Amino acid sequence: MKTVYSKAPFKTKGWEREEHFHFFRSFTQPFFNVHTQIDITKLYHHAKWECLPVSLVYLHAAAEGARATENFLLRLEGDEVVKYEAVDISTTVLKDNKTVSFVHLPHHPDLHTFCQSSSEIIAEVKKSNKLFCGYSGPDLIHATTLPWFDFKGMEHAHTDDPCDSIPKLAFGRLEWKGQQAMLPVSVRVHHALADGYHIHLFLENMKRSVDALGSSVQAPFPAKDSESAAT
Length: 231
Fold this sequence. Notes:
It is a single chain. The chain is of the alpha/beta class and 231 residues long. The chain has helices at 18-25, 41-50, 54-67, 111-125, 196-213; strands spanning 7-9, 31-39, 74-77, 80-84, 88-94, 100-105, 132-133, 140-146, 168-172, 175-177, 180-190. The strands form 2 sheets. Strands 2, 5, 6, 7, 8, 9, 10 and 11 form an 8-stranded mixed β-sheet that branches. A 3-stranded antiparallel β-sheet has the order 1-4-3, with no helix packed on it. α3 (54-67) crosses α5 (196-213). The relative contact order is 0.25.
């Protein structure tokens, strides 16, 4: 399969998780989910100040977090493991007819460029009848957003394929705790390639990207909107 990013073999022999890899690799259901929240207050105010869609800004932060987390770049290919140099986000988009499409949003290190390009892609997708739009391959992170109700986590639909090693993210409706904007997030990974600690690393890397925006602008009152291009 042609991919966006290059890959290299990843040696499991001598890996500190070698025994874990072989143990969980034999499971018929080797996936696990973690449900939590991440403080995106700085991201929220930055997005509002810059007139950017909040959902696209946190998807950009999620891609940055995944790119900085080695275990989120690993994929199973048969009995081997490969490591991709980078990944993009593929997210669900709610179309005008209220069905969804799976959409590839090419990453760009510049947030404004990413948001502009992604907004144009999403505007076109909303008018389409396609289920899959753009590239679909292993060097992606799968994401979805459910912005309409309280969100405590979700289980993803999947085929019975223990080689499906693409990490999957789900985001919920923003929850306001005082002046803090808390984003519910569910993270699913393949246990042969990652443990709970590596989800922690991903969330820390995503949070680092969120905090780097660091806008000094503060809204006088939190706007309790449910922004998302996805569902």
